[in-house]
Amino acid sequence: MNETRPSSKPLYQQVKQHLVYRVLKGEWKPGQCLPSEMRLAEEYHLSQGTVRKAIEEMASEGLVTRQAGKGTFVTSHNGDYQPFRFHRLYRNAGGKVAGNEATYLETRQAEADERIAHGLHIAPGSTGTESLRLRHLDTQPVLLERIFLSDDLCPEAWRILQQHSPGSIYLILEQEYNLLITKVVEQVRARAATAEEARFLSIEPGVAVLEVERVAYSLGGEPVEWRTMVGMTDTIHYRNEMG
Amino acid sequence: MNETRPSSKPLYQQVKQHLVYRVLKGEWKPGQCLPSEMRLAEEYHLSQGTVRKAIEEMASEGLVTRQAGKGTFVTSHNGDYQPFRFHRLYRNAGGKVAGNEATYLETRQAEADERIAHGLHIAPGSTGTESLRLRHLDTQPVLLERIFLSDDLCPEAWRILQQHSPGSIYLILEQEYNLLITKVVEQVRARAATAEEARFLSIEPGVAVLEVERVAYSLGGEPVEWRTMVGMTDTIHYRNEMG
DNA sequence: CAGTGGTCTAGACCACATC
DNA sequence: ATGTGGTCTAGACCACTGA
User: Fold this and answer.
1) Exposed (0-12), middle (13-18) or buried (19+): which is B242, by Cβ within 10 Å?
2) Domain named HTH gntR-type: which ranges (chains A, B) (predicted)?
3) What is the pLDDT of residues B131-161, one digit of tens each?
């Protein structure tokens, strides 16, 4: 297979790029199994080692998961995959703030304000679904979440969110809209609590609160979800490990 | 080389482990060059491919840097290596908060308080060096830093810090104490500014500020540096990308 | 020019899953 | 028993670096 290709990039990079494209267009859905290395090697007329290197890179980026003896599977948020890999909020004592202690306050149709429009790269005033959730630690409210999904990518999302008990939004995005969240960008700020936030969090207005503003991106790099998480940091903190 | 080793771990993992140990004990210092793949393969009586896989993992973890045609080098904070890879504070407009706009306020000997002692796993009251720095954006003060280095790992650090113009602490740690920082853990909180912070940052006491508490770990996993960074978030924010 | 890492091949054996 | 990914080998050619 040494046909003196003028194409600059290494073969395994080209294979990887093509496989990512095929995952993206849904040829193999999340949870499903890719063809084996041998089959792909035959298909692309390359050696097993070259295909392996392509798949290994995809695995290291979390796009697929490999299991010896079974096969290579497209990463899914359900299944055995870590559901809280994007959570950076921890109780000051120790463990993560789990998702099962949340209550929906409200889910409604809404329009994107300036800030949301900027984050999702959509026009201000675009319609979508807005959802408010309150997370508790023991019985104490600690975190107020505001989530926005654009109608462009997630039409009728409010219907689905109203039905579901508070679960993983990203699981719903994957199952209902075939949108796999692979990247999030968060901006953290400190500011004074608004009157509304103070009411929900049982604190005084003006107290210092942490605000995490998140934009979640799909596998294709499209901004999908915008959310803010607001809470006091007497019981929780934002934690980030690098290196 | 298939001598039916009972040793459970793969060969390339064992090689990697041994190479990391050799880097750790200073056989090759930061910036220096490791032996070539061929030489190491001969030394360990293994094939080049196996040694390559060991080195590739070290490179992906940032321990070494590889350059085709030249060799494999132990990662150094000077040289061409990215100096701000642990910085997560950005101006709200755009770019990172650079390090060259800092002024030293004070560097002195000090004792570890409860919080520092907890972060660095040392006894409260242990002696060390404490340094205060103020970072500016244009002419406006935006960030107050408090840095603590234990005398155990960094004896006489105050002498060095007093001499240096405000530069990278991690470069000094590497050059003076042979401590290569490879991991940091940060906790972010919101709270009201103290009177001292308000004075330095030219704000009112009680205003909401962001506090980043960082512990930096050396290649061996030892906690080396403790620091807090405090600032308002009208001009800067903490930004984190995941995925 | 010789030496380096980067790519690619073709084969081997292994531990593990599934049937 | 068959097929999967995981490890390991031995050799090839390439682009790049530096003397």
Assistant:
1) middle
2) 9-77
3) 999 988 878 899 999 999 999 999 999 999 8
What does the pLDDT look like over A34-49, one tens digit per residue?
Answer: 999 999 999 999 999 9
What local confidence, expressed as pLDDT, does residue A76 receive?
79
Q: Which residue of A has its CA nearest to B230?
A: A190
How much is the pTM? 0.83
Question: How much of chain A exceeds pLDDT 70, in percent?
Answer: 89
Distance CA A57 to C1' C19 in A = 31
Q: Given this model, what pLDDT does residue B6 score?
A: 45
CA-to-C1' span, B4 to D1 (A): 25
CATH architecture of A89-238: 3-Layer(aba) Sandwich (3.40)
Contact A187 B238 (CB under 8 A): yes
Using CB atoms, pick whichever of A60, A62, A189 lies closest to residue B233: A189
Specify the domain boundaries for CATH 1.10.10.10 within chain A: 11-74
Which H helix or E strand runs over B58? helix B48-60
